[in-house]
Amino acid sequence: MSATGRLKIYDFRTSPNCQRVKVVLEEKKLPYETIPIDLRKKEQKMPKFLELNPYGKVPVIVDGETVLYESCIINEYLEEKYPEPPLMPKDPAQRANIRILIDYSLNYLNPPYQTIRAQMTKDEKERDREVLASAKGEVKNLLKRLEQAMGSQSYLAGDFSLLDAAVIPRFLRLEGWGLFPDSSLPGLTNWLKRIKDRPSIQIIM
Q: How large is the angle between the packed helices 186-195 and 162-176, nearest 10 degrees?
């Protein structure tokens, strides 16, 4: 996208939180400027950045006079401010269900997901295979709810939505950690294969 747009995102390229926002920016074809923040150098803790986000985290977006942080809140803002193409259904109950599934996927699944992440960042010989196998099994069991919710739909909530954008960074990592493809989760396996063909997803891969 153009680097001259008025919308700016303070970004660390491999951050899943940044990635889910960039997916929505790309889906909505919004021109934006990327401002790199190097988390390895703790640039997110520098006083100037903390003026934008006192949490000291990425992403942050600046849209004119509006400054926002927290990725899912940013995506809700983008959906409301720039409603075309829509990434949320019109029905209030369906919208609420998407928010529930986002919370489930990012928060309820988080403990075993983080256990896997912690083990996979270690050298292979230092990993606790029992802990890793247990966490992988727990994640796969918890993902059955998403599998059931999706059913035979092309995307997690029917059409591509904020739910798909929210969870895809984690699914790409789960795939890299060997959890996908999985014959016990055929719908999610096919969804992951399908969604990677979208240009908005390819920019974060």
A: 100
Specify whether 18 is located in the same domain as 105.
no
What is the distance between the alpha carbons of residues 7 and 61, in angstroms, rounded to a whole number? 7
Q: What pTM was estimated for this model as a whole?
A: 0.93
pLDDT band for position 92 (50/70/90)? very high
Instruction: Kindly report the CATH number assigned to the domain that includes residue 65.
Output: 3.40.30.10
